[in-house]
């Protein structure tokens, strides 16, 4: 059974909520339903689960008045076996994007206060136009992702204390024990090919077979393509599919700025922009914006027309590259331009699963570039990725700036520090 960080966030909501429901967002098949179900069954006397895709007839419960007493009457007619116990009942509305009126009803449930309500949805950013009234002020939203690297290590049996203990080396002042470093780099390469989709992780932990985990990933990718065919606007279906399938080509170039020409010769933002936004709203890809200057606050310098696209899960990306690429990653023999893009996506995976927005900087004349920029203490923090032991391209020049007091190089090397520059193993991105 996979341990997930969201379990603590669910408990925090239960303890701290004040007239608010909880909305858990995220892509399909990342474990939302399982985690919420386990939370409900463990913490409430009565747990009522309604999946609006599996039981579409229950959408009619939310037709008409959204007064809680009226909703309870209609539910009892549809589900006579359920007993509603005030203060001890959790309602779980799953795939709520398929019932916009249920999303609107969250305000009524929050104001009533007798029952706790958690809602979950996979394509909430896609169906927002269908919701007549959003429960602003009555809904706490949290984002859930596939397993991050730390959760992956737990799944593989690594002690939580041992994992968190690695954070002590994030200042680069002392190296990590070489045996621990080598073992964790091996686990990181396994994470790169298995990724964090729960079904793939469970299959790998159960069988220790990369091929069986790959089979699971391919089914998930097929499901994503089916979602595009089912939910995207008619005009955007082939465009969204083309953009998604172009990910390996996008990341196999030295300059990983998104190129519409990799989707179709002569492709333009005007033609493909809506399709890309659909993929982002479905949480299948993540945007990384270029900034005009590497300075705090990064959002104020973001260029909307210049961005990179990364897969939402590193394992799904390497699955798209093919099993031979996975073998090369596992044996640490991956070569060529694609290597840099894959390792960038690895770090993007690790940062974004912690809720960190993604930015990079590339000088207009292409003479300098920083792979990622973070924010800390009202300053920009440069992060450079080296898939091997090379020297960062642009790190030294940016370290001369007065408004930069620390920078990170992530590579296969052990931890170390030289002035403002901290060198860390790639797996330490989970603590940045």
Beta-strand portion reads 15-25%
C-alpha end-to-end distance: 27 Å
Radius of gyration: 23 Å
Overall geometric form: globular
Q: How many separate domains make up the residues?
A: 2
* Major beta sheet, strand line-up: 2-3-4-1-5
Structural class: alpha/beta
Order of helices and strands: HEHEHEHEEHHHHHHHHEEHHHEEEEHEEE
What about the largest sheet? 5 strands, parallel
Oligomer: single chain
Number of helices: 16
Mean pLDDT across residues: 94
Low-confidence regions:
none
* DSSP E strands, number: 14
Helix content: 40-55%
Structure at a glance:
The protein has 432 residues and is of the alpha/beta class.
Structure, explained:
This protein has helices at 6-16, 32-43, 68-78, 100-112, 149-155, 160-165, 178-194, 198-207, 210-231, 237-245, 247-251, 269-281, 314-321, 323-330, 337-352, 395-399, and strands at residues 21-25, 46-51, 89-94, 116-121, 139-143, 285-291, 302-311, 359-362, 369-370, 372-376, 379-385, 407-411, 416-418, 421-425. With 432 residues, the protein is an alpha/beta fold. The protein has 2 domains: 6-143, P-loop containing nucleotide triphosphate hydrolases (Rossmann fold); 149-431, no CATH class. A hairpin with a 2-residue loop joins strand 13 (416-418) and strand 14. The longest helix has 22 residues, at 210-231.
């Amino acid at each position: 059974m996979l341990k997930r960080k969201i379990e603590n966030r669910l408990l925090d909501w239960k303890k701290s909520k004040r007239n608010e429901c909880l909305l858990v967002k995220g892509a399909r098949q990342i474990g939302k339903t399982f985690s919420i179900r386990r939370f409900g069954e463990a913490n409430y006397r009565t747990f009522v689960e309604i999946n609006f895709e599996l039981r579409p007839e229950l959408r009619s419960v939310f037709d008409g008045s959204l007064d809680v007493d009226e909703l309870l009457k209609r539910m009892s007619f549809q589900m006579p076996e359920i007993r509603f116990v005030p203060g001890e009942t959790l309602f779980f509305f799953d795939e709520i994007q398929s019932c916009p009126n249920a999303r609107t009803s969250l305000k009524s449930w929050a104001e009533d206060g007798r029952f706790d309500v958690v809602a979950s949805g996979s394509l909430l950013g896609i169906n927002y136009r269908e919701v007549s009234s959003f429960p602003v002020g009555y809904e706490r939203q949290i984002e859930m992702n596939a397993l991050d690297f730390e959760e992956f290590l737990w799944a593989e049996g690594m002690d939580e204390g041992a994992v968190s203990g690695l954070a002590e080396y994030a200042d680069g002042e002392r190296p990590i024990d070489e045996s621990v470093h080598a073992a964790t780099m091996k686990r990181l390469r396994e994470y790169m090919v298995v990724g964090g989709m729960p079904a793939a992780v469970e299959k790998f932990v159960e069988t220790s077979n990369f091929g069986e985990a790959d089979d699971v990933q391919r089914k998930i990718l097929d499901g994503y393509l089916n979602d595009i065919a089912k939910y995207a606007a008619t005009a955007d279906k082939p465009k969204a599919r083309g953009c998604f399938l172009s990910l390996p080509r996008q990341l196999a170039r030295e300059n990983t700025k998104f190129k519409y020409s990799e989707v179709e010769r002569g492709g333009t933002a005007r033609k493909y922009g809506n399709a890309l936004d659909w993929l982002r709203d479905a949480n299948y890809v993540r945007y990384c914006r270029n900034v005009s200057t590497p300075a705090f606050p990064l959002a104020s310098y973001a260029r909307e027309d210049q961005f990179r696209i990364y897969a939402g899960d590193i394992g799904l990306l390497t699955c798209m590259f093919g099993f031979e690429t996975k073998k090369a990653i596992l044996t640490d023999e991956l070569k060529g331009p694609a290597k840099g893009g894959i390792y960038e996506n690895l770090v993007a995976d690790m940062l974004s699963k912690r809720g960190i927005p993604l930015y990079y900087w590339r000088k207009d004349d292409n003479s300098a570039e920083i792979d990622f920029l973070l924010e800390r203490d009202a300053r920009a923090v440069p992060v450079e990725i080296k898939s091997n032991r090379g020297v960062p391209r642009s790190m030294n020049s940016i370290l001369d700036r007065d408004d930069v007091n620390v920078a990170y190089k992530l590579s296969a090397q052990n931890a170390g520090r030289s002035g403002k520059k901290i060198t860390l193993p790639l797996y330490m991105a989970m603590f940045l």
